[in-house]
Write a structure and sequence with these properties.
Distance between the termini of chain B: 14 Å
Order of helices and strands of chain A: HEEEEEEEEEE
Number of strands of chain B: 11
Number of helices of chain A: 1
Structural class of chain B: alpha/beta
Largest sheet of chain B: 9 strands, mixed
Radius of gyration of chain B: 19 Å
Strand content of chain B: 15-25%
Structural class of chain A: mainly beta
Strand content of chain A: 25-35%
Distance between the termini of chain A: 79 Å
Helix content of chain B: 25-40%
Pfam family, one (chain A): OB_ChsH2_C
Helix content of chain A: under 10%
Largest interface: A-B, 49 and 35 residues
Oligomer: heterodimer
Radius of gyration of chain A: 20 Å
Protein name (chain A): Zn-ribbon domain-containing OB-fold protein
Order of helices and strands of chain B: EHEHEHEHHHHEEEHEHHEHHHHEE
InterPro entries (chain A): ChsH2_C, ChsH2_Znr, NA-bd_OB-fold, Thioester_dehydratase-like
Largest sheet of chain A: 5 strands, antiparallel
């Protein structure tokens, strides 16, 4: 009996599975993204467009209701090149995680960039969504697999998040 | 007007990758016992316990405070838990201080901890949400683009972060409690280390640590009777802001500026670089030193990096305003405790009790913590004198 190793710890992995209660604004956003449509909401006071919408403007403290349909083009606000793998994701490091501002929106969201030369990615670069096949679309931003660079002129740094229409032409 | 309060005891564990010799309860008790010994007090002298830690997912133990009452000697006494993400160690100290400054309690024990080895903090920070793609990039993935934007705006030389990474590890080598002990580190070694989240290299990021920190905070009457010099609390401030809103300034957050202005006003500080003797500031990624030098008003916007490169923040270079003489978060990062360690190390400096990382003659020091998406800020100023 005294030969037994003392127990100093046990491994007890925890798996958390939960239902996400979306609320009005994310529910509308998610049902639109399931159809392949990106929608934001405009603040009635500061007129800034939130994407994804959360139903309110945190700067003004008011509800947002006006819906704005956005194109699937965006501008790189900033980015990082990550050397750590994403579990269960086919994209291998090094890969780009970018803060992107969708055309017509005024704040960034985070997504993957691919089909690019990592060293050439830069602030102000123009990108467009690469979608999964439509039959795989679900209520999730993962419907967009990643964003890839497109041949459009860079947006000047001081205008990122300030241009109001899709299809910036320099 | 708040009553005077002071730190009369400080206790820390040593910081390391994995403390498998103690449970969470053993870890917090070790820091608490050290603080009581430092204060020359016993459990009976404590009126209440204020405990803090970062998200429960970090250890997978939900509401750990419930089972820690016994280890912290507070059966039959009030206990309260604080949570403000990475800034929680600072916020916890401030909540503890406010309970004494308000006259509610005469003497409280405050403790903050993290036992990162029990789980995986990086994955715990990356819970999937349907309105965002699931990337699992952790804190580094979140802050790296913000650092990149600072580098673009400030046009700082590429090696500022490398310098900070070396400087804080050289400081840490003076502190026997620090997790990383790298007395021979060079800028070349930092530069050649693995790029983790470009532009953050491996050696420009904080380690993952187990550890706890504790303080005893007492009112004026009791602090005047303390056996060791008290660190008088001269200013306390917390601010928060939403993580995401259109037009948010992420590089130089408004909440940080407002928090600093508030704490300086209380402490009578006009020019923090001139009026303070040193600062312990939450710098988990090297570039956050120049960014916070600007956010906290030690340098004009866009020029924080100059102080770093001039050696102003370096103990080894005889700088006029050493930042993180203990080695900082870059040398030890038990997340929930990291903010309290900043506050406690500021107090050690003005008590003249910081050992080999003592800033000579330090009379006024700042402790700082931030957390979440740089949305929670906590700061205090402590002094050798009452005011």
């Amino acid at each position: 009996m005294s030969e037994q190793e003392p127990i100093t710890g046990i491994e007890a992995p925890i798996y958390l599975k939960y239902n996400f209660t979306a609320g009005a604004a994310p529910a509308r956003f998610l049902s639109q993204v399931k159809r392949g449509v990106l929608t934001g909401q405009r603040c009635p006071l500061c007129e800034q467009v939130y994407f994804p919408p959360r139903g309110s403007c945190a700067a003004c403290g008011v509800p947002t209701q006006e819906e704005v349909v956005l194109a699937d083009k965006a501008t790189v606000e900033s980015f990082t090149i990550v050397a750590i793998p994403i579990p269960n994701n086919p994209i291998k490091p090094p890969y780009i995680i970018a803060n992107l501002v969708a055309d017509g929106a005024n704040l960034s969201f985070i997504h993957l960039m691919s089909e690019c030369v990592n060293e050439d990615v830069h602030i102000g670069q123009r990108v467009q969504a690469v979608w999964k096949p439509a039959e795989e679309w679900d209520y999730a931003m993962d419907n967009i697999r990643y964003f890839k660079p497109i041949d459009e002129p860079d947006v000047p740094v001081d205008r990122i998040g300030k241009i109001s229409v899709a299809g910036w032409e320099g | 007007m708040a009553n005077l309060a002071a730190v009369v005891g400080i206790g820390q564990t040593s910081y390391t990758t994995k403390r498998d010799d103690v449970s969470i309860a053993g870890l917090v008790r070790e820091a608490a016992v050290n603080a009581l010994q430092d204060a020359d007090l016993t459990w009976d002298d404590i009126d209440a316990v204020i405990i803090g830690k970062a998200p429960d997912m970090f250890e997978g133990v939900i509401m750990p405070e419930i089972y820690l009452t016994d280890a912290l000697g507070c059966n039959g006494k009030p206990m309260m838990r604080v949570h403000t993400a990475g800034s929680v160690g600072g916020s916890t100290a401030l909540v503890a201080a406010s309970h004494v400054q308000s006259g509610t309690f005469k003497r409280v024990l405050t403790v903050a901890f993290e036992k990162q080895s029990e789980s995986n903090a990086m994955w715990a920070l990356s819970t999937p949400q349907p309105f965002s793609t699931h990337l699992n990039a952790g804190a580094g993935g979140y802050f790296a683009p913000i650092i990149r934007e600072y580098m673009r705006r400030s046009e700082a030389p590429y090696d500022v972060g490398i310098k900070v990474a070396m400087k804080d590890r050289l400081h840490g080598a003076r502190n026997p409690l620090a997790h990383l002990q790298k007395p021979d580190i060079t800028m070349k070694e930092v530069e050649e280390s693995f790029m983790l989240w470009d532009p953050i290299r491996f050696l420009e990021a904080c380690p993952s640590s187990d550890g706890a920190c504790a303080m005893v905070i007492a009112n004026e009457e009791l602090a005047d009777q303390a056996t060791k010099p008290p660190a008088w609390i001269r200013g306390v401030a917390m601010r928060s802001e939403p993580t995401m809103y259109a037009g948010r300034e992420e590089v130089n957050p408004q909440a940080g500026k407002d928090c600093a202005a508030d704490v300086y006003k209380q402490a009578g500080i006009v020019d923090p670089r001139r009026d303070l003797d040193c600062a312990e500031v939450y710098v988990p990624f090297s570039w956050y030193e120049p960014m916070w030098l600007e956010n906290l008003g030690f340098a004009p916007e866009g020029e924080g990096w100059k102080l770093t490169m001039e050696g102003a923040t370096s103990l080894d270079e005889g700088g006029d305003i050493p930042w993180n003489p203990s080695g900082g978060v870059l040398s030890s990062n038990p997340i929930g405790a990291s903010g309290m360690i900043r506050f406690a190390e500021a107090a050690r400096q003005v008590r003249g009790d910081a050992g080999a990382h003592q800033v000579e003659g330090a009379k006024l020091a700042m402790g700082h913590a931030y957390g979440g998406g740089a949305q929670f800020f906590a700061m205090w100023v402590v002094g050798a004198e009452k005011g």
